[in-house]
Amino acid sequence: MSRTITCTRYGSDQEGLDKPPLPGPQGEKIYETVSKQAWQEWQSLQTMLINEKHLRLIDPEARKYLSEQMWRYFNNEPVDRAEGYTPRNDS
Questions:
Q1: 3-state SS assignment for residue 87
Q2: Is the distance from CB of 34 to CB of 6 less than 8 angstroms?
């Protein structure tokens, strides 16, 4: 059975994640406050940032940058986008 949480990204009740997506307090906070939809959207944005900005996840600064961008995204603050990136239009 799915659980419902009040999503910080959407400001409404949404379907919650099945389990914390990360270990520790940060994963618990995401589990309690971020919807499944918002998490999936963040995963897509994170992948784009990693690829377009050539981030190396072994680099602590890259991980710190992604964490900052993630919380900005979940709190509806401006986030970085890849320069010149335009989403594909499948219509």
A1: coil
A2: no
Distance from C-alpha of 53 to C-alpha of 42, rounded to nearest angstrom: 16
The domain that holds 33 is classified in CATH as: 1.10.3880.10
Question: Quick check: 85 pLDDT over 60?
Answer: no
Residue 87 falls within a domain, yes or no?
Answer: no
Query: What is the pLDDT of the chain when averaged over all its residues?
Result: 90
Q: Kindly state the tokens that stand for 20.
A: 């914390």
**pLDDT score recorded for residue 90:** 63
Count of the separate structural domains present in the chain: 1
The arithmetic mean of pLDDT across residues 77-89, rounded, is: 74
Helix residue ranges, H only, the chain: 24-33, 36-52, 60-74
Given CA atoms 12, 21, 50, 43 in this order, what sign does their dihedral have? negative
Q: Which residues pair with 6 in a beta bridge?
A: 13
Is residue 80 within 8 Å of residue 13, measured between CB atoms? no
Report the alpha-carbon distance of residue 48 to residue 13 in Å, rounded. Answer: 27
